[in-house]
Design goal:
alpha+beta, four-stranded antiparallel β-sheet, single chain, 14 strands, about 325 residues
Length: about 325
């Protein structure tokens, strides 16, 4: 005779945890994951939370250029907010990238009074403003006239304005909040499988800024964790041989790789665009494709053609139109 207590419980390593979405909205998600082997609730919960808060990509405004304003201590005529308050409001604009490219948004207001919101920015096919009701500034009277350009980029985490060095007068850097996650926490409870009661139930809660759903955030975080753990899985195994990259000396004349951008006698616009992309030498520039260069802020077709012409002058082999 076999009693219920004699039925063996499933082995922890053979458990197949199930994920249940217990609550979800446009900017919130609550996920229940069970059963997990004892201790894995905290292990997975802590790892997922850290990836959620620090590693997910997003798009944010990085700087503002305002006609008639040279620095953050300037004032705008007929605008109630000072420049510091306005820049703080700009931080709250949440953008959802469509193309993944960097770009700019314009705000033109004339003969109008009252509240100006993020929805008043001119549309751009590269991004979508998910909080158009977000307030930017208040105009005192209908004689007000303002013209602004907001530059946006994609990235991860948070970059303070102090780290965005710009030597161009009139460019006001903004604290860039790239992460789409506003808050995340987890808790671990005990659960049972059969007669065993020491399994873990992980409850994960996520609040987003609306540019990404909580479910997508979990998927991307898990994919990042798997990608980072991949090398540990193959530890000690033979690694595939990588093709040798073409040596720089095969492309550049001797000693040209370290040539500084400043010494190439490019126009100020082209030079500043390259420097903002952290490209300081000729060798670093040639590591990027034309498409990657065109994605740099203020680096357009004219700048690309200027660069190609300069490379030819320096004796660097290039392909026209490349």
């Amino acid at each position: 005779m076999t009693f219920a207590t004699d039925i063996p419980d499933p082995e922890p390593q053979r458990l197949q945890p199930k994920i249940v979405v217990s609550d979800e909205s446009e900017s919130y998600g609550r996920f229940v994951i069970e059963p997990l082997a004892q201790g894995f609730g905290v292990t997975l919960g802590n790892a997922l939370r850290r990836v959620l808060l620090n590693a997910l990509p997003g798009t944010a405004i990085t700087s503002v250029r305002i006609d008639g304003v040279d620095h953050e201590y300037s004032t705008l005529k007929n605008v109630q907010e000072d420049m510091i308050d306005f820049l703080l409001n700009v931080k709250g604009i949440r953008l959802k990238s469509i193309s993944g490219n960097a770009g700019s948004l314009r705000l033109e207001v004339k003969d109008r009074a009252g509240l100006i919101t993020a929805g008043d920015l001119e549309p751009n096919g590269d991004v979508e403003i998910v909080n158009p009701e977000h307030p930017l500034l208040n105009l005192d009277n209908n004689k007000a006239k303002i013209s602004m350009e907001f530059s946006f980029e994609s990235g991860t985490g948070f970059i303070p304005a102090d780290d965005q060095n710009s030597e161009i007068i009139g460019i006001l850097p903004v604290d860039a909040i790239f992460t789409p996650i506003k808050r995340s926490n987890f808790q671990v409870e005990a659960t049972r499988v059969g007669q065993v009661t020491d399994y873990d139930r992980l409850i994960l809660e996520i609040w987003t800024d609306g540019t990404m759903s909580a479910e997508d955030a979990v998927k991307q975080s898990a994919a990042i964790m798997v990608d980072q753990l991949g090398p540990f899985v193959s530890l000690g195994l033979p690694q595939p041989e990588e093709e040798e990259e073409e040596e720089e000396s095969d492309i550049l004349p001797p000693g040209m790789g370290g040539l500084l951008i400043e010494d190439m006698k490019l126009s100020s616009r082209t030079q500043n665009s390259l420097r903002r992309g952290n490209l300081t030498t000729l060798g670093e520039v040639l590591e990027h494709s034309p498409e990657e260069l065109l994605a740099l802020r203020n680096f357009g077709d004219r700048s690309l053609q200027e660069l190609i012409g300069k490379l030819k002058e320096l004796g660097v082999p290039v392909i026209d139109g490349a």
